[in-house]
Write a structure and sequence with these properties.
alpha+beta, 36% strand, 5 strands
Length: 137
């Protein structure tokens, strides 16, 4: 059985990020929140053709990273640590710049980072540009 292209790309993202994060991302979607240790997951997102260029397609892979809160905080204090999350995003973006032409796709990049301070989590979206297998073999 051939592995779908989005799964191949997802596993490439995982291979690159695991050493940067210092732990192995789990394949599949974790909801998590306020973890005692760093943890994270990776899962396939949207696949779509490019409207102006239907021979091309975009695949999106989502990475969630949960960062532990370092100190006890009162209920009134915010739980998230925006500096820790933003620093992590910057490190991932800087690492990914060296891998944009890898993973079996034409090119890829980090196209989004959403911060969830309630769960001390960041969700990054990776986009890969490739051929539309619905049109091109």
């Amino acid at each position: 059985m051939t592995v779908p292209e989005i799964i191949t790309f997802m596993r490439h993202v995982k291979t690159v990020l695991d050493p940067v994060l210092g732990f192995a991302l789990r394949e599949g979607k974790l909801e998590g929140g306020l973890e005692r240790r760093r943890t994270g997951c990776i899962f396939p997102g949207l696949e779509q053709e490019v409207a102006a260029q239907v021979d091309d397609a975009q695949m999106f892979v989502v990475v969630r990273v949960f960062v532990p809160v370092k100190s006890q905080r009162s209920e009134a204090a915010p739980l998230g640590d925006p500096l820790a999350l933003a620093t992590l995003v910057e490190r991932i973006r800087n690492t990914w710049r060296e891998h944009v032409l890898e993973g079996g796709v034409w090119f890829s990049r980090v196209v989004g980072a959403e911060y969830d301070l309630d769960r001390n989590m960041v969700e990054l979206t990776f986009m890969a540009h490739t051929r539309n297998i619905g049109i091109l073999p």
